[in-house]
Amino acid sequence: MSELEIRKVVVLSEDVLSDGGRGDDGGPLRKVACAVVFKNPYAGRPYSEALDELIAPSAALGELIGTRCFEAAGGPVESHGKAVMVGTAGEQEHGNAVKTTTFGNPFRDAFGGGRAWLPSTTKRAAPGASIDVPLCFKDEIWVRSHYDTITVAIPDAPAPDEIVLVGAVATRGRLNARLGGVTKAEAEAGAGS
Known about the structure:
alpha+beta
């Protein structure tokens, strides 16, 4: 990651104990997000077709973020997601470049892997903006009980020349989930959509 100038790493953790006025038999839901704030090497520069300065270091960022998420989760991870906020001197595509598969595979590996597509979102933003990081079951995107989000906002980021890259995990599905669809058990047994 020596190619990137990292300003800070932020880890956010929340435990959901009840929803709709009640808990359930599954215990608390822990959602964790890890954000890395770093200088965008393309900010303020003329348009560049190649974005290698962001793609190349994204694997190391994936490992760092995945490891921090796993440590903060304190147990097995069932859901995952990612998001990026790009400061106003950069392009939205700069954020997409840093969260490609090069990022995704090491991110997943750090918490034990996952077979499902990593849901994501990207936007340009000013300091203090929030982003909702989408979450889904790590092995099968169609497990509705695990559709969720965690909101991340960093008061001083992204600066115009920065990028905020976020990875997020959860230890279980939503409390009191009851909308049907493929269950976690069915997905683990190989049943698809």
